[in-house]
Amino acid sequence: MHNESPPSPPPLRRRIILATCCLSLFMVSMDVTIVNVALPAIRRDLHTSVAGLQWAIDSYTVVVASFLMLAGSTADRLGRRRTFQAGLALFSLGSLLCSLAPTTLALVVFRMVQALGGAMLNPVAMSIIVNTFTDPRERARAIGVWGAVFGVSMALGPLVGGVLTQNVGWRSIFWINVPVGVLAFVLTARFIPESRAAKKRRLDLVGQALVIVALASLTSAVIDGRRAGWGSLQIVGCFGVAAAAVAAFVAYEARRSEPLIELRFFRSLPFSSATVLAILAFSSFSGFLFLNSLYLQDTRSLQASVAGLCTLPIALAMVVCSPLSGRLVGAGRARFALVSAGTAMATAALLLTDLRPDTPIARLLIAYAVFGVGLGMVNAPITNAAVSGMPRAQAGTASAVTSTSRQVGASLGVALAGSIAGEAVSPAFASSTHAVWWLLVALGCAIVALGVASTSARARASAARVAEALGDSVSSPERAPAERPRGAATVYP
């Protein structure tokens, strides 16, 4: 039987392990956004509707969000390296199948296969990092690198996707995952030791099923609401099923000794706020990319590579702001980072609230850059706050909660943006997006408000109480955020 964490590897091997985990993160995260710029090409080739495009995106994010928590706890139970390798193999296979999809339905199904592999990667990779870097300061730096790779990969997706779609075809955006996945698989087998949690947690199949029902019903209701009618029996029924599944999940999990999600985590205000912040931020990001991809190519008739190039300001801003945000969090300025992020995202959306077919490109690029500043600033404080008070023994499950929140947000963002904008075609599409931009302004303002609330003295005290109640085994300085200076950053496994 493996211990929770084997002896810490030598420095060079630790760096290779981190690079391998970041390689998988780069592949999976870029895949979330690389598809967006190929949507018009997929629409033309497969003759699909906007709803079909929404499902091509959301079939992936819903499945990932549904299985992340199970994947994390399974890795802690059966072996992190084994689960990680299974995820790499399944993700690579799903990518290959997506490149061969003859219909929209086939693409949606193959995206779900791909997502099953993706669900095994990010939370398990974070668990491997946590158990490889046992020194809190080294772990904080490793998580900082992880956050930077995550942000940059999501921002580079549209740029890479645009070049590939125009010059090779939309199917090529899935080909690039295969060699990357194979390389990560080989590096994992060579350098990453097997590890498991000391205490094996029981599977929670009922809780897992309720999560799937809730997310699938909610996403289906939002995507089909405009077409079927928001007051129709179908849509009201889907919302009702989602609400009932959430209520049943909370009631069921509260009675389990080893729940799928430890509900006591939500008594920590930083953790609860970070969960909502992740949903808000990634709803904004996914909705922003979804609409702009269609606008730039369908309304403005730009080539895919040019449309991808237009999103370069997002990537550049994130490259600059992601490490800056990490340093701000490390210096105890998490509130400043979150307030800056929300303000930037709201400002970017505000610049697009009167979007027209002839809106100056310069104005679009400024909006994209400002939005990139917001997204770059938001990741580090979310990650920092979301893992507050979580025990190292549940590292896989703990990191999965953060990733799940991001994926839920991504699903809802695409669903809401597509449903509000509707099936309007050029040039009417530009004006049909105005309500979405106002919604994103509101989400940015909500991020500002939550940023202030989640970094208050009351919030820090609640995190300390949760850490004590859970009996976390980490050292005292790492456990007691309430004893640190105001706004000080604490990184938990």
Describe this structure in words.
The protein is mainly α and 493 residues long. It has 2 domains: 11-193 and 256-483, Growth Hormone, Chain: A; 205-255. Helices cover 76% and strands 0% of the residues. It has 21 helices and no strands. It has helices at residues 11-34, 39-46, 50-78, 80-99, 104-119, 122-132, 136-167, 172-175, 177-191, 205-228, 233-255, 269-299, 304-310, 312-330, 334-350, 361-386, 395-421, 428-432, 434-453, 457-470, 476-479. α1 runs parallel beside α7 (136-167) and α15 packs antiparallel against α16 (361-386). It is globular. The model is unreliable at 1-5 and 472-493 (pLDDT under 50).
Structural class, please? mainly alpha
Q: Tell the overall outline.
A: globular
Helix content: over 70%
Amino-to-carboxy terminus distance: 22 Å
